[in-house]
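no rush on this but wanted to send it before i forget. theres a chain ive been looking at and ive put its sequence and its fold in token form underneath. i want to understand how the tokens follow from the sequence so walk me through it. thanks a lot i owe you, the record is right below:
>
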Amino acid sequence: MATITEDRVEPRDRRAKGPLIYRQSIFTRVTHWVWVVCLFFLLCSGLNIFNAHPTLYIGEQSGFPNLQTGSQHLDNAWLDIGAVNTPDGPRGQTTLLGHSFDTTGLGLGMSGDPANPEFRGFPGWLTVPSYYDLGTSRVVHFFFAWILVATLAVWLVASAFNRHIAEIPPGPRDWRQLPRDVLNHLRLRFEHRRQYNVLQKIAYSVVLFILFPLIMLTGMSMSPGLNAALPWLVELFGGRQTARSIHFLTMNALVLFFIIHIVMVLLAGPFNELRQMITGRYRAGPEVGFDASRRDKP
């Protein structure tokens, strides 16, 4: 029987695995991880700020409990996280669009030790700092908000020079591939290409060009100083309370994206996905092939 030497088998294995390509630039990788840190602290400090008044409204005005009339909120409230007294003792309650739900088990409205509960919108393990401190949470929130803005500006400039930004929005050919890519994802069949697939392009376009600008602009519209300098900004969103609601919903959309993003990384191959965001190198699928004429170097 003939012996197959290792140097003859190796090229076949390389073709089976696909090429190791340079996919992510240093700017994309650094800004990616800075965004991860910023969004973590923005979320947790933002929830602490939200706990100062865990109710959201539509319009310009907000309401507080009226001891004379017994009215708890204005009619324009659409979300309220609090606690109520029941025959069995206090319970956490969340009211969404006029419908109330017991959310004690979720830590919304009431959390901690049942014998000595804490009454606030979101539990302490989700907030920064873990105790209620509006002043500290605002300092943390604004600090990381400006880092996020600066990092996004760096990414936009760098991506314009290396043309990475042009690879993100889906084109006509991508939209034609949408049904096939959706079906492949439902079957957990992932193609490892040089470029993003259409679902990735849609998701990244929404985050970078819609959610990021929206959460920044709504955050700016809630600043009294910027209200004086740019009064049209708060009017653009229909009032400060509407801007606050949009800010909250946008944050939830980013959290949902993060969860889906992590799930897809785990399903598509966490080592390969993490390697590209650390070293820039990505193992493409065998269908990509080795192209000696292509420059896959940083």
The beta strands are 20-22, 55-57, 77-86, 89-96, 99-102, 281-283. Residues 55-126 form one domain. Residues 1-15, 66-70, 291-297 have pLDDT under 50 and may be disordered. The chain has two domains: 19-51+133-283, 55-126.
